[in-house]
């Protein structure tokens, strides 16, 4: 297995919000804040140390706003795209003499605000979409009509999923609830029509997570402050269980909250059967591998009763976990790939590639070798799972949790978080910075203090600090972040012109400013009277004026960063003065 970020211009450096592999080929579709949908061909690099080769194929342009979700139908003949403003477009693949082209088939308009997620039914007859207007809509694709609106949520619907067996649809909202709807068809004029009725509203846990903890109700999901537009949930390909992101729970009342993804057994959809603890960042998307694999028999105490292995990916804001149904711990963890939040993940049809997109404007690819994930499992017929047969081991009195792994995950999470902060720093060329190479091939700084003490490297240090803060911010518009960084660089250039070396990392108090000015004035007054010329006296006076002006600017100007970072000068650049070195 190898993976990394592909350094190409995916969407003109704007956030990539969604992606999906074509079900019959290695064609990857991406979309984002530049309003376009682009197609890419993925090929092996031919070298064990190189990333797959990504080649641009074509693009689709019809949307007039950011595209938040794209999904191919199971046959690959149709593509659905949902965007800001509530537009949902169905594209159809046409074969011509010049090749294959995608054309708009239908425009589905019923949502009043941004569409954040959508999912096809297995037979590509229906689509469910979730929107910022707090509603889910079930569409008839052939007629292009709104069959049913599900408007029970009190906040944004950020994730939807369609049961592959056709019995349920599910939605996940920032109102901290997951709703499961059951299809109860009714006949109208002799024609049977779908009718989804809410069966479960999952919001709080009624049972303790651990046997030794006190029984209390607690919220299962993050609230609307989760810094992501998406909570993409999914059903397993056989419909045996539901995987839900954005989980948050406490091991005990005194402990910190643990981010998690929940697994719901089809037999009991009222509460989680398994919690999968993840890193320090919230889970925003999950996706199942489309291929089943043979059991390896290495883990006898598995949590699932399946004759095959199912592999799935869980994406947090800054990391990726790969699990299978035969073990409780992840089979792979990838972190530090992006500088901004991960937005979507997808598997190729042959399970050879796993791709993820990010708001930093890039996509990453993970490539698996042949049979690295296991040997494919041949299904004799259509996969089905009756509701009466549970494939997840559960008990009646408590939620099944791999508790033996929770403490290890928390410890690994803290370690990973500290490593990511170092790995994510952008280190520019500097002769006096000691650097080391991490296992991932990235360089990290070894001596921050040396950089702070050097005037020439002060801008680099602040740039790195700004980059680190941008990672943890809820990035809603890349332009805002770039504007902050650009403004920071402009002010840093002004500070360099002033010729001032700031060694303190805290705010400079008024008393300290007055003391420094007084010291400089004393130095000026103590200059020898018999200077070589009047020019030197004038030079000393200019030094005093420059330093006083710089200190006054820092004292009165606003600070761009937190109090822990180096103060930024906000002195208006009315007149540019030639920098003069200050004598010690």
TrEMBL record:
The WD repeats are found at: 60-101, 108-149, 150-181
Enumerate the UniProt keywords alphabetically.
Answer: Chromatin regulator, DNA damage, DNA recombination, DNA repair, Nucleus, Repeat, Transcription, Transcription regulation, WD repeat
The protein's location, in the record's own words, is: Nucleus
Q: Which InterPro entries match?
A: Beta-prop_CAF1B_HIR1, PTHR15271, WD40/YVTN_repeat-like_dom_sf, WD40_repeat_CS, WD40_repeat_dom_sf, WD40_rpt
Q: Which residues form the CAF1B/HIR1 beta-propeller domain?
A: 1-373
Write out the ranges of the annotated region (Disordered): 488-584
The record ties this protein, via PROSITE patterns, to: WD_REPEATS_1, WD_REPEATS_2, WD_REPEATS_REGION
Q: What is the superkingdom listed in this entry's lineage?
A: Eukaryota
Cited SUPFAM superfamilies: WD40 repeat-like
- Locations of Basic and acidic residues compositional bias? 488-498, 512-526, 533-545
- State the Gene3D superfamilies in the record: YVTN repeat-like/Quinoprotein amine dehydrogenase
Q: Which GO terms describe its cellular component?
A: nucleus
Give GO BP annotations, semicolon-separated. Answer: DNA recombination; DNA repair; DNA replication-dependent chromatin assembly
Q: Which family does it belong to?
A: Belongs to the WD repeat HIR1 family.
- Name of the protein: CAF-1 p60 homolog
Designated gene of the protein: LOC100784411
């Amino acid at each position: 297995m190898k993976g990394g970020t592909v350094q190409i211009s995916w969407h003109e450096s704007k956030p990539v919000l969604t992606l999906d592999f074509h079900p019959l080929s290695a064609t990857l579709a991406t979309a984002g804040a530049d309003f376009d949908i682009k197609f890419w061909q993925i090929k092996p690099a031919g070298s064990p140390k190189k990333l797959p080769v990504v080649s641009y194929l074509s693009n689709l342009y019809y949307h007039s706003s950011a595209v938040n979700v794209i999904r191919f139908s199971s046959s690959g003949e149709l593509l659905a795209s949902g965007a800001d403003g509530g537009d949902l477009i169905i594209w159809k693949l046409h074969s011509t003499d010049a090749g294959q082209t995608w054309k708009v088939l239908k425009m589905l308009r019923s949502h009043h605000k941004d569409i954040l997620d959508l999912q096809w039914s297995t037979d590509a007859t229906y689509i469910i979409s979730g929107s910022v207007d707090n509603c889910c809509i079930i569409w008839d694709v052939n007629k292009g009509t709104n069959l049913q609106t599900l408007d029970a949520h009190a906040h944004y619907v950020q994730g939807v999923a369609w049961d592959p067996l056709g019995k349920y649809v599910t939605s996940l909202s920032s109102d901290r609830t997951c709703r499961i709807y059951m299809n109860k068809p009714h006949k109208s004029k002799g024609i049977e029509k779908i009718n989804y009725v809410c069966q479960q509203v999952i919001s709080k846990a009624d049972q303790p997570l651990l046997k030794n903890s006190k029984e209390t109700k607690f919220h299962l999901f993050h609230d609307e402050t989760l810094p992501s537009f998406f909570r993409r949930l999914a059903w397993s390909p056989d419909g045996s269980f539901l995987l839900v992101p954005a989980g948050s729970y406490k091991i005990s009342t005194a402990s910190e909250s643990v981010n998690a993804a929940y697994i719901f057994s089809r037999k009991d959809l009222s509460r989680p059967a398994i919690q999968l603890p993840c890193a320090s960042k919230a889970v925003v998307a999950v996706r199942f591998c489309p291929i089943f694999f043979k059991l390896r028999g290495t883990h006898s105490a598995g949590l699932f009763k399946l004759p095959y292995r199912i592999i799935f990916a869980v994406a947090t804001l800054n990391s990726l976990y790969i699990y299978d149904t035969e073990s409780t711990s992840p089979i792979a963890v990838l972190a530090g790939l992006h500088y901004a939040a991960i937005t979507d993940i997808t598997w190729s049809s042959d399970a050879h590639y796993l791709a993820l997109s990010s708001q930093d404007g890039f996509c990453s690819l993970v490539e698996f070798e042949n049979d690295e994930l296991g040997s494919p499992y041949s299904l004799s017929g259509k996969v089905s799972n009756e509701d009466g047969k549970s494939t997840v081991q559960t008990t009646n009195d408590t939620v099944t949790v791999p508790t033996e792994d929770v403490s290890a995950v928390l410890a690994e999470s803290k370690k990973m978080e500290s490593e990511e902060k170092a790995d994510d720093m952008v280190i520019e060329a500097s002769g006096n910075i000691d650097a080391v190479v991490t296992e991932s091939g990235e360089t990290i700084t070894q001596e921050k203090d040396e950089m702070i003490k050097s005037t020439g490297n002060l801008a680099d240090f602040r740039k790195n600090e700004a980059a680190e803060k941008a990672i943890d911010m809820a990035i809603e518009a890349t332009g805002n972040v770039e504007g902050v960084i650009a403004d920071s660089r402009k002010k840093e250039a002004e500070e360099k012109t002033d010729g001032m070396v700031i060694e303190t990392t805290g705010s400079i108090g008024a008393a300290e400013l007055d003391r420094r000015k007084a010291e400089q004035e004393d130095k000026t007054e103590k200059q020898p009277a018999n200077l070589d010329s009047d020019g030197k006296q004038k030079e000393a006076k200019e030094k005093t004026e420059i330093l006083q002006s710089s200190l006054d600017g820092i004292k009165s100007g606003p600070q761009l960063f937190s109090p822990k970072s180096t103060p930024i000068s906000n002195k208006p650049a009315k007149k540019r003065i030639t920098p003069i070195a200050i004598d010690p």
